[in-house]
Amino acid sequence: MKETLQVIKHEFIHMVKTKGFVIITLIFPLIALVILGGYQFIQRIDAQDTTTGIACVGYVDEAGGFDDISQTVEIALIPYQSPEEATKALIAGDIREYFVITPEYVSTGRIDRFTLARELEIPGSTRNEVRSFLLNNLLQAYISDEKLERAKSPAWFTSTRLDETGQISPEQGGVAGVFLLPYIFSFLFWLAILMCSFTLLEGLAEEKENRIMEILLSSISTRQLLLGKVIGLGIGGLLQILFWFLSGWFILGMVSTTVGGMFIGLEIPVRLIAFGAVYFILGYLIFGTLFAIIGALTPTFREGQQIAFFIVPAGGIPLVFAPFFANNPDHPVTYFLTFFPITTPVSSVIRIGVGNISFWELGLSITLLLISVAVLLFLGAKVFRTFLLMYGKKASLREIIRSLSQA
Amino acid sequence: MSKSADMDTVNVSRISKSFSSALVVDSISFDVRQGEILGLIGPNGAGKTTTIRMIMDIIKPDSGEICVLGERLSAITKKRIGYLPEERGLYRKLKVIDSLIYLASLKGIASHDARNRAEELLKRIDMLPHKNKKIEELSRGMGQFIQFLASIIHNPQLVILDEPFAGLDPVNTEILKEIILELRNEGKAIILSTHRMNEVEELCDRIFMMNRGQNVLYGELAEVKSKYRNNSILLELEGELPHLEGITGKHDYKDHIELFLDKETSPYEILKQLTKQEVRVSRFEVSSPSLNDIFLQLVEKE
After folding, report:
1. Is the overall model pTM greater than 0.80, yes or no?
2. Which residues in B lie closer than 8 A to residue A220 (C-beta atoms)?
């Protein structure tokens, strides 16, 4: 036991100190900071535009009847008699832009707009104010102010999720809550599992290639070595996920006031954290053991990596199915991906996030994972002993089968 | 348990091992006693490393029994063995001192004690200034020394060294030989495996010679040498070699000649004849066959 602890300590420190681990751990929070920081920066520029003073916008009324500018507040509308006059004012810098309400406006809706600026689209404030100005002048003679206000914005939607019993569901939230968050979470979750598993594969291959394996095995058993490695690296991966989680939470808290309320009201469900940890450990055990077996069977890290790359996409398939899971909780494909051990961890985490996985599914998928891990560990320990010391030689299928039946 | 087994550190009895129908070790038996160096010698592919791996319980024998320190190898007895494998390496990115401490910790040594002992050993081979270097910064020979130190850092009762001199320069080879003899004098049992038989002659108390998985010779080095003496003398002299009685053959070498004596003649009688004829002799040596020669003799016989 003491020796297993030493291996755990050694592997953990060894992993945490590698450049790759540090970079991957820091890069996602950094990317998030850069993206959200950039968003905030652009917003501030936009905001500056409007706060430097109310923009003056000219217009020429060729249709007639558009003369009430009293309700326009965010921009100052200045009427001109002709386009030529307006152009002069534009060139002189008196106005930022002007538009012409064409004679056939009522039947076509055509508005000609002129500006000196290069721009991607009409600034939001101008567009809204001009629309509102047009509506006012079109309708105020016929309907009440209240109805006019409603015509401008006919519907404010508020959505509430109900659960199966008709009660208000505890998990509310917009696009981010239903989809984006589980998606990001399960992606990072998947990445951390892979990171650990690859470190395990790399470590075993290094020990094999460096020939240190035999020195290790002269002190401790293959079981202690395997266990120590798997646990040591697993703790590293768990810490990585925890760091991502906390930094994500912190960054979101910092910016949620500015990012248009997309993440407002977003609470990471406790269920996601608790089961996330369980699935991380089991998922990592599945992949870790699989990779360890590959590491034992292949002579070099490169060859091991090549085989491992066939398994990696298989585990990540559920990421593609995330939207599908949200809409089809009872589809056979959903069931298959939830219960097939390789895809279980990511599928389940997505579905917990989406909130449509039932308790029996959680129970069954965890049971199946546990059984698979046990079987893999059992087979792994057998293969391990035979092949860890086989240097520079690829194991043939016959030898593998023989080692399984003998050891 | 018999009394002799009590004294034996290792007791190997009739072990065999085959890999995919090739018999690599064929029913061999030997023992190693405290305070002795047993030379496990033989050419490449003789089955030495497989034998050692079976002693270390890395490979299971197909048949036969192995007793180490009075019992079948257990996790506890493993801690009392120091093992330098033939295939060896270290973590390239790890510092010298950390490598030693980690490997010692796997043998159950507390890290504080391991550090003291590691520094003591590094000092012994004048490598203390390198303790904070990474393994990859060391020369090959230095790295090999570090591995050797790792195999004795926990003060083991039994030390198994598989080709310890491979890749070492003559100076380092001498230092290593010195340390191995010191370990023997401390009462440790040592198994020294090598295919360079002549290199270890002066170290071994007993030898166990293997060829193609089988034991071909086993016993005290001195006894073996006298048993395989081919009754010849090596001679260097000035002038022509006069006629001598009792000579059956002669072999000329660049700087000396070897004379083969018949069964009735002893080296002393030849010396008497030479003095009588007033020959100026600058070298007179009773030839003792090297382990290599003995091995070749044995193999040719087969």
Report:
1. no
2. 75, 78, 106
Q: Right CATH number for A50-152 from 2.40.160.20, 3.40.190.10, 2.60.120.230, 3.30.10.10?
A: 3.40.190.10
Mean pLDDT of A42-64: 73
Query: Residue A66 and residue A64: Cα distance in Å, rounded?
Result: 6
Q: Which residues of A touch B20 (CB under 8 A)?
A: 399
Note down pLDDT in tens along chain B; length 302 residues: 344 445 678 999 999 998 877 889 999 999 999 999 999 998 888 899 999 989 988 888 889 999 998 888 888 888 899 999 887 788 888 899 999 999 999 998 988 999 999 999 999 888 899 989 998 898 888 888 899 999 999 999 999 999 998 888 888 889 999 999 999 999 999 999 988 887 778 889 999 999 989 998 898 988 888 888 777 888 898 888 888 888 888 888 888 888 888 888 888 888 889 888 888 888 888 888 888 888 887 777 66
Homologous superfamily of domain range B3-226: P-loop containing nucleotide triphosphate hydrolases (3.40.50.300)
Q: Is A223 on the interface with B (CB under 8 A)?
A: no
Q: Which amino acid is at B162?
A: D
CB burial of residue B244 (10 Å; 0-12, 13-18, 19+): middle
Look at strands A97-101 and A111-115 and give their pairing. Answer: antiparallel
In whole angstroms, what is the distance from residue B18 CA to residue A110 CA?
A: 93
Determine contact: A87 vs chain B, CB below 8 A.
no
Contacts of A195 (CB under 8 A, 6+ apart): A21, A24, A237, A240
Strands B81-84 and B158-162: parallel
The answer to whether A210 contacts B102, with C-beta atoms less than 8 Å apart, is no
Average pLDDT, chain A: 79
- Tell me which residue of A225, A362, A200 sits closest to A284, measured CA to CA: A200
Residue of A7, A13, A199, A212 for testing the chain B interface, max B β-carbons within 10 Å: A212
Q: What is the ipTM of this complex?
A: 0.78
Best residue in A213, A214, A216 for a mutation probing chain B (most B CBs within 10 Å): A214
Sheet holding B8-19, edge to edge: B22-33, B8-19, B63-68
- Find chain A residues with C-beta within 8 A of B53's C-beta: 214, 389
Contact B91 A212 (CB under 8 A): yes
Q: Which residue has the higher pLDDT, A43 or A207?
A: A207
Domain ranges of chain B: 3-226, 231-286
Nearest 5°: phi and psi at A72? -90, 120
Chain A residues closer than 8 Å to B22 by CB = none
Of the residues B87, B111, B146, B193, the best mutation for testing chain A's interface (the one with the most A CB atoms within 10 Å of its CB) is: B87
- Residue ranges of chain A that CATH labels 3.40.190.10: 50-152
Cβ-Cβ contacts under 8 Å, B105 against chain A: 3, 6
Q: Does A13 touch chain B (CB under 8 A)?
A: no
Distance from CA of B98 to the nearest CA of A (A): 10
